[in-house]
User: What shape does this take?
Amino acid sequence: MKRFWTDVTIDDERVVRLDGRPVRTPGRVPLALPSLPLAEAVAEEWRSVMEEIDPRTMPLTGLTNAAIDRVAPAPSAFAAGLVAYAETDLLCYRAESPAELIQREAEAWDPLLDWARARYDVHFEVVSGLMHRPQPEATVARLAEAVASRDAFSLVALQPIVTISGTLVGALAVAEQFIDADTLWEAATVDETWQAEQWGVDPLAVEASAIRRRDLEAAVRFLMLLD
Assistant: This one.
């Protein structure tokens, strides 16, 4: 779609408008934002469009569309999908060797687990290797409560943060501003960084990593603009 508008504004209901007409989601619902900072950021994405709309340059608009059309009609079901990551959280599966990698994982991941233990009064089963070990039911239930208490806009931002990083605990730590996007990314890529140091950098892997980091940072920004 080519740019057809001149002015981008925000009305009293925080709906983004193009030449006075509301932007609508693919489901034809007006694009209304829950906070003015987020509305301003989404509006800026539309102002920045040059000749043609490129969804890749409008991540906040995309997340808003998903929050309104996909998550808001069934937030409980969406939250349940996120909670499933509690059973296989990256932070709970440690390398068996070498010692330096084990130490790096501990330095990056232990503070996040310690935060979650104190914040939610839970216990985590931490194992060496990739063999699955179930987490305590009480732990999963408490994390499920923490996720389910969030609205559609917060949930839609958590989804890419969780799936890209591989850690629900890390995503909640970001949501509650215990850590920032850079810290989460460094924790999520401890193993990747180690492998690159040992075997060299793969250009295709670097490109894919840059895309993942861009998407994670956009989701974190979306989440922070909700407040």
